[in-house]
Amino acid sequence: MKRLTGKMTILVCFFCMLFLFLITGCGKEKEEKNQYHYKVYYVNHDRTGVISEDYVTENTDVGSLLEELVTQLGTVPEKLQYHAPLAGSFELLSMQLKDGQLILDFNTAYREQEMITEILNRASIVRTLSQVKDVQYVSFLVEGEPFVDASGSVVGVMSA
Hints:
Distance between the termini: 71 Å
Largest sheet: 4 strands, mixed
Number of strands: 6
Shape: elongated
Oligomer: single chain
Strand content: 15-25%
Order of helices and strands: HEEHEEHEE
Radius of gyration: 24 Å
Number of domains: 2
């Protein structure tokens, strides 16, 4: 009879461990279920390309999420070798989402960026914000007028 009790004890311990493992696993899944992963793009130190950093949010509201990502784009990252694309001398005046197109309107200081810096900043902004599910395209305005590049051409709508 002692053998049967020993086997039963081992079996009960095994099922208890299995139960605890399953409960722990389910808790982690639920915790991660409410988190959404994005990449925030920054300009590298040499201003030769863009680099992404992972960003996690629980925000699902499109308007609030866009505001949150814009805040991240304007915040100097922990890695000081990266440059935040919206932390320059220009200012984002407004942001409007209309029929899948996100319209960003900047003040005139946006035009004063060096050409390469402006292109990298624009790429970082577009790649970051176009990850939001309702944003298909991003367009840039300066004081309500379509943004014009160094050659005088209207930049138009962009996607990642």
